[in-house]
Specification:
Elements (H helix, E strand, L loop, with lengths): L1 H9 L22 H12 L2 H5 L1 H7 L6 H26 L14 H31 L41 H6 L7 H10 L14 H17 L4 H11 L2 H14 L4 H9 L9 H15 L5 H6 L8 H34 L11 H12 L5 H35 L2 H5 L1 H16 L7 H11 L3 H31 L5 H16 L1 H4 L59
Length: 576
């Protein structure tokens, strides 16, 4: 009996249950529980942990930002993570099939599919750019190190070549060292920025001017999709083996870059910029909003991926333990990545003789401009560049695996017959080919405009709506007593009281911002002015162009309110 209990615990099951009858022969299961944990870590820990969180922390009060960040993790992030894992594991269905719990809300599952589709299209384009930089780093000298290339402009000023500062018609630099010269350079553009804009992207002047498709990027996009397809060719059976490398090796690279970074001159200054608390910023609502959005989007809630990955768990797996471990690992990785990023940026700022704020950036500007430029200052810079971009590729692939598997699982579960179960590989191939074709416009000269547009608007407020409806439908339509009993049947214990309170009250209030998001807009009411009587009388007047003169019905109370926003625009944020 002891041996059986120990074996069950190794598989993440309730000790009193036999593990054999947990096996889902129709859909399949993870080879072991480590595969699920590593896949979920790879899904949650993505590019945003490296290139967005450190900048948000620096911008929103340094160490003081950690307080609202971990508050949001505790009251919103972990509870939602646990809910989605338990939801998918109990039903053993993807993001569509789970809504048998309440068929009226199946549209939420379709919403998750749409979100995963949008993100999957442009996310692989970012991975393909990382592939391009990875291949470009296989040279003795990095191509963005100097300003002597055909694509460079007279405004280019390289940190490694002081003579490049005087390119063009500008006056000679003032006497002094390179830092002094750079500080007095007018309109300086770095060689890494010009390499990014003028060579890699060949950026057009307008979002509507697509220009030509960049064939090198198109080729790398094909490589990205081929890699993703091959890793998912047998579903979770194959991807579960790949994540042993893709989910763990980024931590090896982060540690190598961290050790190298903290030994550089100026690294301590950069880290202090990252961590120095500015406690006055805690009182700003924007700081709390950024903390909530980073937790929300970093964990991948409402994308459908968590439900999908958990659906391949054995029924009695302890997903409560997994949700806490994975969530904390994700957030700890974000904090750790900040030390890696700002140690190098501090070194670069020290080398240039400028403030760290002058070189701090986020998103593509950090990954493909600022950090590559900093790497050129290191000895054996191609080696560090190869490691950095290989890490970005692995971080991106970990998320992309789950995005593609979410779509494939939803389609297969929805059809549900034996034929499509046997042809799941062809479904995966079809989805991958469709994703490649839809990503081709993003490799054009205007592609980066569309990529950033999709990144900011494709999955923003929709995720808030999806999560809130999911909480409401499970807790109040299906019934919280029923769901708590389901979890007790699955895990052997009910969800802790803290999670019960968060699911019913706290998390919906945070993610939906009930105070602002549920109020009607101030211009709500009848469309025609003559119908705006009673409580609708004190509303926004027509514009002067309408040529109408409106007399208030109650002149003594005719205080015209200012047009307000429903708050949704504040929730648009970067997924990458």
């Amino acid at each position: 009996m002891v041996g059986k209990g120990a074996k069950a615990m190794l598989n993440g099951a309730v000790p009193s249950e036999a593990t054999k009858k947990d096996q889902n022969l129709k859909r399949g299961n993870w080879g072991n529980q480590i595969e699920f944990v590593l896949t979920s870590v790879g899904y949650a820990v993505g590019l945003g942990n490296v290139w967005r969180f450190p900048y948000l922390c620096y911008r929103n009060g340094g160490g003081a930002f950690m307080f609202p960040y971990f508050i949001m993790l505790t009251f919103c992030g972990i509870p939602l993570f646990f809910m989605e894992l338990s939801f998918g594991q109990f039903a053993s269905q993807g993001c569509l099939g789970v809504w048998r719990i309440s068929p009226m809300f199946k549209g939420v599952g379709y919403g998750m599919m749409v979100v995963s589709t949008y993100i999957g299209i442009y996310y692989n384009v970012v991975i393909c750019i990382a592939f391009y930089y990875f291949f470009s780093s296989m040279t003795p000298v990095l191509p963005w190190a100097y300003c002597s290339n055909p694509w460079n402009t007279p405004d280019c000023a390289g940190v490694l070549d002081a003579s490049n500062i005087t390119n063009g018609s500008r006056p000679p630099p003032l006497p002094g060292n390179l830092s002094h010269a750079l500080n007095h350079t007018l309109q300086r553009t770095s060689p890494s920025e010009e390499y990014w804009r003028l060579y890699v992207l060949k950026l057009s002047d307008d979002i509507g001017n697509f220009g030509e498709v960049r064939l090198p990027l198109l080729g790398c996009l094909g490589v990205s999709w081929v890699v993703v397809f091959l890793c998912l060719i047998r579903g979770v059976k194959s991807s579960g083996k790949v994540v042993y490398f893709t989910a763990t090796f980024p931590y090896v690279v982060l540690t190598i870059l961290f050790i190298r970074g903290v030994t550089l001159e100026g690294a301590f200054t950069g880290i202090m910029y990252y961590l120095t608390p500015q406690w006055d910023k805690i009182l700003e609502a924007k700081v709390w909003g950024d903390a909530a959005s980073q937790i929300f989007y970093s964990l991948g809630c409402a994308w459908g991926g968590l439900i999908t990955m958990a659906s391949y768990n054995k029924f009695h797996n302890n997903c409560y333990r997994d949700s806490v471990v994975i969530s904390i690992t994700n957030c700890a990785t974000s904090v750790y990545a900040g030390f890696v990023i700002f140690s190098i940026l501090g070194f670069m700022a020290s080398h240039l003789g400028v403030d760290v704020s002058r070189v701090a950036d986020h998103g593509p500007g950090l990954a493909f401009v600022a950090y590559p430029e900093a790497l050129t200052l290191l000895p054996i810079s191609p080696l560090w560049s190869l490691l950095f971009f290989f890490m970005l590729i692995l971080l991106g692939l970990g998320t992309q695996f789950c995005l593609l598997e979410t779509l494939v699982t939803a389609i297969v579960d929805e059809v549900g017959n034996e034929w499509i179960l046997q042809k799941k590989t062809y479904v995966t191939l079809g989805v991958a080919v469709a994703g490649f074709l839809l990503g081709i416009p993003l490799t054009s000269q205007a592609g980066i405009y569309w990529l950033l547009l999709m990144d900011n608007y494709a999955a923003s407020f929709s995720l808030v709506v999806i999560s809130c409806i999911m909480c409401v439908s499970i807790m109040y339509i299906y019934g919280h007593h029923n769901y708590f009993q389901d979890i007790q049947m699955m895990l052997g214990f009910p969800p802790p009281l803290f999670f019960q309170i968060c699911w019913r009250f706290v998390s919906p209030a945070i993610i939906f911002r009930l105070k602002n998001a549920t109020k009607p807009s101030r211009d709500w009411g009848p469309a025609l002015l003559e119908h705006r009587t009673g409580r609708y009388a004190r509303t926004i007047p027509p514009s002067p162009e309408d040529g109408l003169e409106v007399q208030p019905l109650h002149p003594d109370k005719a205080q015209i309110p200012t047009v307000g926003s429903n708050g949704s625009s504040r929730l648009q944020d970067s997924r990458i």
